[in-house]
Design brief:
By secondary structure, this protein is α+β, with helices and mostly antiparallel strands. The chain is built from 15 helices and 18 strands. It is about 40% helix and about 15% strand. The strands form 6 sheets. Strands 1, 2, 3, 4, 8, 9 and 14 form a 7-stranded mixed beta sheet that branches. It has a 3-stranded antiparallel beta sheet with strand order 7-17-16, with helices on one face. Strands 5-6 form a two-stranded antiparallel sheet. The radius of gyration is 26 Å and the shape is globular.
Length: about 475
């Protein structure tokens, strides 16, 4: 089925390519990333900047600085023509034959077929951004590559398998016991779409670029993408298949911010052209097989250093148990959760937390409301809230089966105990927060740095005795008012 879909999408793209040939020729001369646009496998030269730059040397300009500049001319040939220079090595990127404009920006589909051990990846973005992204790890492993910047490989024998799930289509179930804290999968995307393109392009234009992006992937990866479910099925032929590709993407996309492109800083000075963060919407064929639950047994985060979704078990999982993640904010009451699920994904949740008997569901919703109320109170650092309320918050998370978010409750408990001068309990909860938070959010989060600072020096941390100071202020204000 996926092979047939791939052929139909290719046919739709050929038809669209012919229809848009004249506009493509007109655009070709204005793009800062030029190459012959003959078919979806056209290989385009991608400049490879050398980083870091030697001291006192000006960094090279990137196409993002001047959108309409052509790449700099190639250096004159050396006396030894038999030894090609590093910059002359062929680029791993190819560009689709059609680009589309939104505002002043032109978006194209770029494919790196050998990425992640031949799995491949496609990006829909501007030529200037692909120059920037493609010049650095993990998309260019020839420049300053480290083990930490290389795309991860999933285990040879993953602890799960695809099976039909009644009422849900295809899902994943455990094939062996999985302990809490275990890395279940680390997957790279099939396609990443620049958020500006996702929001700025017309639907039919984005569908065209997505079609190019998917058929340009290695056949195995594109086939797995086309086998994913969509919110609604498109027509069987022509443009309808491109519409299906768009629906598969939009149904299964995750927000994947790519942060810290390059180092951004060299020698203490900002490098022109680097971007602190680029927002993308991405689809992962493996992760997209995970169905939703409101108290899921898996948690995940996107690691922009390796462009991978890292998925961890948050509970012990038995063989035959379905693997689940959450699509919505699990702290909300059931009516709010299901309203969003119905609006966005066209289904009503039937997980155990949502299918409780009426009196038990009422209690569950009451606990959810209490969680939201306690969080607001604890996050107001101007009051004299108590660590006992933070302990209650932890209990409510546990009763609702919210291990996927438990680090948030540990974080607040650490601050509250430190706020009343109990460094022992504060460090204990800070350690517990780090244990879960690093698994579920990754290392580059402000709360992680905050907890590390508390562990290192509780009495020097900003939260030391801050609740007692607030109570003293309130008591002083009350005394002055009564006098």
């Amino acid at each position: 089925m996926s092979r047939l879909l791939r052929l139909v999408v290719q046919a739709a793209l050929i038809s669209a390519t012919v229809a848009n040939a004249s506009s493509q020729i007109a655009h070709r001369g204005t793009s800062p990333f030029t190459c012959p646009a003959l078919d979806t496998s056209t290989t385009c030269p991608l400049p490879q900047p050398k980083l870091p730059h030697p001291p006192n040397q000006t960094p090279p300009q990137h196409a993002s600085q001047q959108e309409n500049e052509q790449p700099p001319p190639s250096p004159p040939p050396s006396s030894s023509a038999s030894e090609p220079k590093p910059s002359e090595s062929p680029s791993p990127w190819s560009r689709g034959p059609i680009c589309r404009r939104a505002g002043h920006s032109e978006y194209c589909a770029f494919t790196h077929s050998s990425f992640s051990s031949g799995t491949g990846i496609s990006l829909i973005t501007t030529p200037s951004r692909i120059l920037l992204l493609g010049s650095q790890p993990p998309l260019n492993l020839t420049i300053h590559s480290t083990p930490e910047s290389q795309p991860p490989a999933n285990p040879q024998a993953p602890p799960y398998k695809d099976v039909p799930i009644p009422g849900k289509g295809i899902g994943l179930v455990a094939t062996e016991p999985i302990r809490a804290g275990r890395l279940v999968m680390a997957a790279t995307p099939a396609v990443m779409v620049d958020d500006k393109a996702f929001r700025g392009l017309r639907k039919e234009d984005l569908a065209m670029l997505l079609g190019q992006a998917i058929v340009s992937l290695p056949a195995e990866h594109s086939g797995r993408f086309l086998n994913l479910s969509a919110d609604a099925r498109a027509a069987d032929e022509g443009q309808g298949q491109l519409d299906l590709v768009w629906k598969i993407f939009s149904t299964n996309a995750f927000r994947t911010p790519v942060v810290g492109i390059g180092a951004g800083v060299e020698g203490g000075e900002k490098i022109e052209g680097w971007e602190k963060e680029m927002d993308f919407q991405s689809t992962f064929v493996e992760v997209s097989r995970l169905n939703h639950a409101c108290s899921p047994n898996l948690g995940y985060y996107f690691d922009s250093a390796t462009l991978s979704h890292r998925v961890y078990a948050v509970k012990d999982i038995l063989p035959g148990e379905e693997l689940t993640i959450s699509y919505v904010d699990v702290l909300q009451p059931s009516t709010t959760r299901n309203s969003l699920l119905s609006k966005t994904w066209s289904f009503t949740c039937t997980c155990p937390r949502c299918m409780l008997e009426p009196h038990l569901l009422e209690e569950s919703n009451s606990r959810s409301q209490s969680i939201l109320s306690l969080r607001r109170e604890l996050d107001d650092y101007s009051t004299s809230a108590s660590p006992q309320k933070a302990e209650l918050l932890i209990t409510l998370y546990e009763l609702e089966g919210l291990q996927v978010r438990i680090y948030e409750a540990y974080y607040r408990a650490a601050l509250e105990w430190n706020g009343v001068g109990d460094s022992g309990r504060a460090v204990r909860y800070a350690r517990m927060c780090l244990d879960k938070g690093l698994l579920l959010r990754g290392p580059n989060r402000p709360f992680v740095d905050n907890m590390k600072e508390l562990v290192a020096d509780p009495t020097g941390h900003w939260s030391w005795r801050f609740r007692l100071k607030n109570a003293e202020k309130e008591e002083s204000a009350g005394s002055n008012g009564s006098s």
